[in-house]
């Protein structure tokens, strides 16, 4: 099995990627959170410059519905040495969907077809797509896959939810199964593989799938892939070092303790799941999420990390 790390805006940026890669080194391909303006900001450049992506296979992601924006970003990515780019057709957010970007572009298939026609003709590097299966109804998928099959995608990553599902309900495995039969190039599965049980159930149903993309599962339990592959479970020591590297990276990247705290708290809203079996978890977590002091946050985090017990991780199949 090949494992990809999902792009997650403000969570799986270069600081997280580097720390993860240093301590776990089991991801075959990393995807950056999306870039969306052709004049790349200094934040965008930090995300993609080669110095921040050493020793990892990284594919930058673009979210746009405009050919010129896509091609201009792709051209700059080529200058940085990238050979692939990913198009985001999955973001379900209410701020992008009405503008026909992300999953919102699935509401206008003529526009999608035109965009793909132009970018596949002119883009200097290979293009993969990360997609949802439609906006409101699974029946939309048939027309969407017909369009994808017209173009030479490097690969198609499918998160088989509708835009209106956001992250609710369950991935639609019937549609995913249909896509596996119909799509003419490599398909990667993404969605809700957050535990060994969920992964086992998925791979038993789809033994032919050779690539999965993991997002929240890794944020909740950074040792997840070791558990999936039967490697030695992650230790408290490794998690502590991993956490220190992320914090040090944010201290370098971001100015102001409040802003660093914001990023760390966002991470812990997932990572906290690893410590659910600790004594007085809810009370300690509440204190950690409320504090405005970075040293206090760090101290509570370190106490949790010192108590880490990998047995606590397995979540029930949902
Ligand atoms: C906070 C957050 C930010 C995300 N940002 C992106 C993004 O920038 N690009 C993208 O394609 N998907 C994004 N996603 C979707 C994830 O890549 C992934 O498809 C989704 O979380 C389902 O996979 P999982 O169940 O393994 O987490 C985001 C999801 C979350 C929860």
DSSP helical segment count = 13
Percent of residues in helices: 40-55%
What is the CATH superfamily of the largest domain?
A: Aldolase class I
Shape: globular
Describe the fold and architecture.
The protein has two domains: 2-229, Aldolase class I (TIM Barrel, Alpha-Beta Barrel); 236-313, no CATH class. The protein is an alpha/beta fold and 318 residues long. The relative contact order is 0.12. It starts with a strand and ends in a 12-residue tail after the last helix. Helices cover 44% and strands 12% of the residues. Helix 1 (14-24) runs antiparallel to helix 10. Flavin mononucleotide is lined by residues 6-9, 11, 33-34, 61, 88, 90-91, 130, 159, 190-193, 214-217.
Structural key phrases:
318 residues, alpha/beta, TIM Barrel, 2 domains, eight-stranded parallel β-barrel, 44% helix, binds flavin mononucleotide
Any chance you could write out the topology, listing elements then pairs?
Layout: E1 2-5, H1 14-24, E2 29-35, H2 42-48, E3 58-62, H3 67-79, E4 84-89, H4 109-122, E5 126-131, H5 141-148, E6 156-158, H6 173-182, E7 187-190, H7 196-205, E8 211-214, H8 216-220, H9 224-229, H10 236-253, H11 257-271, H12 281-290, H13 294-306
Parallel strand pairs: 1-2, 1-8, 2-3, 3-4, 4-5, 5-6, 6-7, 7-8
Helix pairs in contact: 1-10, 4-5, 12-13
The structure holds flavin mononucleotide.
